[in-house]
Design goal:
By secondary structure, the protein is mainly beta. It has one domain (6-81): Ubiquitin-like (UB roll), CATH 3.10.20.90. It has 1 helix and 5 strands; from the N terminus they run ββαβββ. The chain has one helix at 28-35; strands spanning 6-13, 16-23, 47-51, 58-59, 76-81. It has a 5-stranded mixed β-sheet with strand order 2-1-5-3-4, covered by helices on one side. Strand 1 and strand 2 form a beta hairpin. The chain starts with 5 loop residues before the first strand and ends in a 7-residue tail after the last strand.
């Protein structure tokens, strides 16, 4: 029997940290959509989520879940625009 684990992570959006909880099985693309403003959600493919806790920092595959990308409880994730705008 599989139970979905919840991850508590810090997410940096526009450089501002916030504590968030996500299911470990949640696809990264769904997390990106959830973190974006309603205005930007249609352009979710223009954004990336990076796990800053992993060394070196790892850009997460949007087609895989958080767990499949190696994200763990307590990690720090950064949402940035792929063209270099916003965030870090």
């Amino acid at each position: 029997m599989h139970t979905d684990h919840k991850f508590s992570v810090t997410v940096l959006v526009d450089g501002l940290p916030s504590e968030r909880t996500f299911a470990s099985s949640e696809p990264v693309r769904a997390v990106i959509v959830e973190l974006l403003s309603p205005h930007d959600r249609a352009n979710a493919d223009k954004y990336r989520l990076t796990d800053s806790t992993q060394q070196p920092p790892k850009e997460l595959d949007p087609n895989l879940s958080l767990a499949q990308n190696g994200v763990q409880d307590g990690h720090v994730l950064s949402l940035t625009k792929k063209d270099g705008g916003g965030g870090q």
